[in-house]
Every structure is written in C-alpha cells, then in structure tokens.
Amino acid sequence: MNLTRRDALWLTAGAAVAATMPLPAFANTAETVEEAIAAFTGGADVKEGGVDIGAPEIAENGNTVPVEVSASGASSILLLAAGNPRPGVATFNFGPLSAASEAKTRIRLAGTQDLIAVAKMADGSFAMSKRSVKVTIGGCGG
Amino acid sequence: MAKVKPRVKVPKKAEVGEVITIKTLISHPMESGQRKDKKTGELIPRKIINNFVASFEGQEVVNVNIDPAVSANPYFQFDMKFPGAGTMKFTWTDDDGSVYETEKKIKVG
Questions:
Q1: Who's near A130: CB < 8 A, 6+ residues apart?
Q2: Considering chain B, what percentage of its residues have pLDDT values greater than 90?
Q3: pLDDT of res. B63
Q4: What is the pTM of this model?
Q5: ipTM, 2 decimals?
Q6: How many CB pairs under 8 A join A and B?
Q7: CA dist., res. B105 & res. A142, Å (int)
Q8: Which of A23, A70, A80, A100 could cross-link A116 (Cys pair, CB 3.0–4.6 Å)?
Q9: What is the block-wise mean pLDDT of chain B (109 residues), using blocks of 10 residues?
C-alpha cells in the first residue's frame, strides 16, 4: 500500500483521538447486534423462541417505552434494541432468590425497530426472541 | 443537578415462600452521551447509572448492567421469593463512581 503524507497524518490523528477518548468502566462497547450477542453467548448456538418480550405494539414516546422480559429458568437475559445508535439496553442477572426470571423496565428507542432478547438458561444453553415496536416520536434527542 | 433520590416499593410483610413484587425507581437524568448541546453543538458527556443490584440479606436477587438506552429515572420491577424476615438492600452505581443505596425491612406476617 502506498502511504501518502496526507494519509499518514490522518492515521496519526485518528490514533490520537482513540487514545484520549475516556471509556466508562462498564461500557458495553458492542457496535452491532451480532457483536453484542456474540459477547453475551461467547459464540455458542442460540435457538429461536423461549423468551417473552412484553412491549407495546405502538409506543408514542420513544423516551420511555415500558418493556418486560421473561424466560423461565433463565439465569440472565440480555436485551437489545436493534435500531438504536448502540444496540445494548440492559443485562439482567437473576440471583438465587429471584422468583421468576422476569423483569420490567423502561427504555429509550430511537425509532420503529426490533427488540431482541437473548436468555442464558440455567443449563448453559441460549434462547432468543424478537419483537417489533413502532415508535411515533424517537427518544434519542437528535 | 437534581438530587438523586431512590424510591423503592416493597411489601412491609409477607408469608415465607410467597412471591413478592418489588418496584424501584431512582431519579437520575441518564445522560446517554449521544445528545448534543443545542447552543454549542457539542456532545453532552455520558453520565448514567451503569449497575443496579438488589440483594436480600447478602444474597443477590437481581443484578442489572445498564446501557444508555435505559430511560431517565430508571425503573425496575422484579419478583422475589420471600425466604423469611430480613433487610433488602438496593444499590445503584453511577458512571462517576457515586453509589446510591437504600434499605427496606420485610417482616414475616
């Protein structure tokens, strides 16, 4: 590859920016849904179905969309929003005292998109479900 | 900045073995790091609560890793199997390292 002087300048500038960017300690840095799922499952096979996602069909305000995830026998559930700038939403880890592997929260959605939930079962297998949500006003503050 | 105030709703008493629902909310702006300041056009730095843990007498009930896509004033609802009288502890961890805590006692009855 032929490296011109201009290219070289861009490269060093990019590297300098990357080096100075502060990254919060627990940041989920996955950029795509595939990366996020791979980081959660460690590359294991994921079977379709078995996770329930409760969400409104049409959410008027993308800033607070009530969402419920449940998967019986799951030890943790990863929730992703495929159409957000970053797909990660939250990871729920259920402890021994948790009655049902079920949690409700409120999330931000940038627009009409699919929600994806991946559950890690107690036996180490993974299950995944999808659900689409229509969003009238997006919640990422442009 | 508005004061961060946790609010938790748990039953005062429950039967042993009963499944109880716990609701938690904490007032927090959850600045996603994606928004721009309308005047200067610069990105507002990310500041969210990145972790929430609920535990009962030292045993974890749920532990949630939170990304910026969780709404402002993050709300969580979950179920717990009540093992007997004790104290429930709720801990939220902020990006800036602050830890917000609250406790609730649950009696048998």
A1: A53, A114, A115, A116, A117
A2: 77
A3: 95
A4: 0.81
A5: 0.89
A6: 115
A7: 43
A8: A80
A9: 82 93 94 86 90 94 93 94 94 93 93
